[in-house]
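Continuing the series of single-chain predictions for the mutant panel. This is the parent chain; the variants come on the following pages.
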Amino acid sequence: MTTTRSPVHYAYVLRCSDGSFYTGYTTDVQRRVAEHDAGEGAKYTRGRTPVELVHVERFESKSAAMSREYEIKQLSRSQKETLVGESGDGPPAER
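Parent structure:
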């Protein structure tokens, strides 16, 4: 019997070349970052490449990941800097 695994969902934060932050949602972080770098991602990041992945959080549901994406977008710049600083170079945060 084959088991179908539901996709894993991620909320992520990029640091753009101008120092600004971009927050998004995806099921494939590496692909999405490559899209942003190639100018095929969000309109916001197109003129701000290259981008650097600075924070990732993993979720089991799309709704949880998108809710977290919204929460991060509501943070002030200093709060985002704190979040990014806490993410370090380790594995993605699990929620």
